[in-house]
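Lab notebook, page 48
Experiment: co-folding of the full assembly
Goal: obtain a model of how the components sit together before planning crosslinking
Operator: M.T.
Materials (sequences as entered):
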Amino acid sequence: MATNAYVPHAAGYVDNEGPKVVTARFTDPEGYLLPHSVASGGYSGLREALSRTPSEVAAEVKEAVLLGRGGAGFPAGIKWGFMPAVWPRYLVVNGDESEPGTYKDRLLMERDPHQLIEGCMIACYALGLNTCFLYVRGEMALAQERIAAALNDAYSHNYVGANVLGTDVSIDIVLTWGAGAYIVGEETALIESLEGNRGMPRLKPPYFPAAKGLYMKPTIVNNVETLSNLPWIIRHGSTAYKQFGSERSPGTRVVAVSGHVNRPGVYEIEQGVVTFRDLFYGENYCQGIRDGNDLKMFIPGGGSAPWFFPEQLDLPLEGGEIGPAGSMLGSGAIVAMDHTTDAVKACHRLVRFFARESCGKCSPCREGTSWEEKILERILAGHGRPADIDLLADVGSKISPSPYPTAAWEAEGLEAVPFPPRQTTICPLGPSSVAPITSALRRFRHEFEAKVANNASPDEAADASDSWGTEVVMGGQQ
Amino acid sequence: MTGVPFTLNGQELEANDGELLIDAAERHGIHIPRFCHHSRMKPVGMCRMCLVEVDSGRGPGLQPSCMVPVSPQMKVETDSEATVAAQDGVLELLLANHPLDCPVCDKGGECPLQDNAYAFGPGESQFVEEKRHYEKPIPISDLVHLDRERCILCDRCTRFADEVAGDPLIHFIGRGASTQVNTFPDHPFSSYFSGNTVQICPVGALTAAPYRFKARPWDLTSVESTSTVDSVGSRVVVESSRDEIVRILGVDSDAVNWGWLSDKDRFSYEALNSTHRITTPLVRDSEGKLEPARWNDAVGSVADAISSSEPDRVAVIGGARSSLEGQYAWAKLVKGIIGSDSFDCQIGDGLPAPMVLGLPRATIADTCRPGGVMVLMGPDPKEITPALYLRLRHAVVNDGVDLIEISPRPTSLNHLAKHAIHPAPGNIGAVMAAIGKTHRSDSDVGVDADELDAIRELISADRPVSVVIGRSNVAESPRYTVDAIGALSRLNPNATFLPMLRRGNVLGGLEMGLSPSFLPGGIRRSGTSIDGWDNIADGDGRDTAGILKAAVAGDIDTIVLLGADPLADFPRRGLVEDALGRVPTVVAVDAFPTTTVSSYADIVLPAALVGEYDGTFMNMEGRLSPLRAKVTPAGQSRSDWQIAVALGNAMGGSCGFSTLAEVRSEMSKNAPSLAEVDWDEVDNSDDGVLADLTRNWVLEFGDPVPPPSSSSSGLRLIADHKLWDNGTMVTYSASLAGLVEPAVLRISITDAHELGLSDADRIKIDRDRSTLEVPIAIDPSHPAGVASMAIGGTGFDVRDLIAADRTVINLRIQPGGAA
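Observation: model returned without errors.
Model output:
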């Protein structure tokens, strides 16, 4: 067994000397202040946008193929087009970043709040609406503080509010803090929470936010990073933007890498160009796996994403490539796990998260996730039964039944991880808990079997119940 | 209606426009299992039991059929492999933490979870872990217990409390597997509608305190009937075990109560089983004690007393408790055989009979018509007729009905009203007249002119306008309300009216002639002759107040209290005491030893209560629905119509009928409003049968009386009602009696400030020559210049503040105020 002596780098921003669309001010320790922002072009995108018509601005964004950065990766420009001609309508900014492993939105809000505010303003202008709700996760104290201060400054300098920059455009941004529920990162649950209700997802259909969202009015919910891209796109144009990244996924992405790499942190990378191998082993990036260990598996897009294994290292970081391979880039949270990692414990840690964060609305998720957790706990505690391994899969199948086969894994002759999952629940939280189980069972079933066959002594069992085996620091969880 | 073509299990079918898949399938004979779905509440898609495989053109996927409206060409499989696997899975998960304590669960035997567990799921659980544990059960109100272990978190009770009742006092707390339903700390689920959550709970998580462990479902027999605790006539199922009524459930009648009941509808059956029931006739002996007597002797004594009185010296108060048949029989006995016209089924707390009988009628559905205008000119419907309140609230919240509230103080619908004005007692007629005027001086009625104009525009607009009328203040002459009705009718002659009267079958009573000057069917007495009614009086009879005053003057020899408790109900208690003390023979037809009965009755005839006899109920709309006997009458008690027949015979005459069917056929013959009624339909239709109450009378409103001069000092009194009061059924229902609140005089913050009452809890009020100490509460929502107290609370009787015959009551609060 390896020791637990590994001390990770402080997980923060790492400048990789690549193109910078949204992290340009991250290297300035005071980049969050208005004068610093304005000195480096802050709000010039807003000025530029206001000099054009809203539909021109929207067209520019659509042309840039700005893919949503919250998880689903849907093009923002097309999403905006779904809004029916109904007013009032709202923009809601999803700053409730809480996917395990994700902490890039937090940095975007802490390091460059004005960029986000400017992005919100551009989006509001393009969408022809005048009220934006900025919802920040409850635990992000520094982000809240900086955004609040930045918004005050922006109001007092007329970047926000009545008659923005002397035009007849008036837009208000309303700040709201979350109350600490992971599920509120799901857009319809976030809307419920904004309305003052318990954060529980609404069923889509009929409650597609673009048609029936906040207060049953058309609502666009965009991620913090998505909106943070807008100032650059308006300033430099969609053509310039599309020079970065791949044809399918232009621009950059901010990814948060954690786990057993030598230099975890937040990296802005070109989409579809950088591969996982570059990211984990590149000198400008994570500089390899700790202690020169072998990579055992990695999570490509947050705790909800099915796991990848060393054979997927050469996939580029791009939704279009990762999806067909059976997982997702999601919110850009990448967790590397080396060969010392206990797959069962890793699985348990993730499932426990989802069991605790289930909102309790859909029976399968509410009852199923906690059952999964209990089975895994039992196996880890040394009381597993041989039947538990199949039971685990069976309970999972009640939350996300009969997986869709994916070409890549079928070719391997293996049963596919259910992704995107078929689900018996409203939102993907329940199925998210199944992803690690199916991933682990598919590849490391023998580890489960070994645990059940050599049931541990009670001492070991107690030790096991609260750890991944070896320490993995997940960003955003400190 | 345009049909939406869709395919259900390979069959080409049509759904209604916008119909949910689960309902469309049900209509076509395919039952999809469900827990959270309830047709009277918004879908939530929570339990996932109703998942079915749906292909809307993008390939099959699992969709909750309770949330998906049928779309054209949708293909649905309710028994495909994927559907069955999903439903089985959901069921196994729901049972994982369920305690399976069915043998000791009230719901066992009628439990949707139990039923579905037989039909779906693996039959045996794979769950070997320890189940979730909670303290069980916890009382969440005086009437409802919650067992969180049994709960499957379907959101039915919580949705009901929030969406339907508007009392969001229970909610989910915690998350994931620790999610539970609970109340907020220190705020019990004290809703008037709490019992509905027990009925709609799909498991045994919510149980009703009065029913817990009383019976098993397979011991129960049931019959459909009608609730008589108020004039809504909510449809119910009455269930009994071993000849004892143990439970009442709501029936989903589209026209009336939509399945919902107030807790009074639901739990006041307990009074039937009360040990205080009068079960034999009683006669007061020479020592003044009521002693059991034989029926023949008691009836003979009553007959003798009546026969030896002049007809106009015989009077009857009450009758609103009876069935329509009982009311007709008594009307015939008194007005057709004895020959007295002094009969009143309202106890001085209703509206004048000509108004109730003659105004153009609105049904509940008319009043709640989507897009209409609803005027509430009366008391708080939540306190008077809670089941109607739910319908009115639904209409305003969901169906775009504009509500105008014109009441002496804010009602429970106040926050939903488009316009709300609160005329002080005595002013409503003048305010309504001011609304009708286009030119007026602002100082007229003390209400903002723009508000009055806006109300006029709404009332006179080209939209259906319905007016809910009632008696909002018994310390105020009903004359002012009549003036207001007159003014409103002039403003919009097409407006229709729904009388929100307090007593159960009061409209039936008025229809059957239980008010002076009227005969059954709203026929005016004067100059009318009816076959078999040989002694119709010539002179005008008296209403309750008139009867009591005549009694004080020595003009009444025999008074019959037909299920009436005037000592508790009549606005002026002193007058009742004086009157009953003077009358030589007081006969009570009652089931309980109320104060009136035990203090004043000379002869008591034991009356059967609803649930013990067959008959008919007429609700506030004129809707006829059946009352059914479920248990045998307590002791020797008899139904009211049988007592009338016995009295008629004892007096040497005859009522001319001896069966219920004969009463009904004579009613149909003599009451034009019942001429077309098909009694079989009354007995068998969920929605009952509307009697034809179209009258086309030209109502004489007379000249409006001017409002009382505004007195410079003193607060004008509002005496109104609350649901839980000292009424008979509440008093004798063990579970409800404790819900009656102490009576307090509510005053506004402004008045409290002026009187220097920051934290006093009693004030001194001068009345006649004495001073009363009155408990008060400062109410932020209370209008200034008025003070209100409900009749029938504990501790203080508001009627002590109601002095002699005044049109309004001004309270003279002693300088310095606090006691």
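Interpretation: Residues 214-273 of chain B form a domain with the N-terminal domain of TfIIb fold (CATH 2.20.25).
Next step: discuss with group before ordering constructs.
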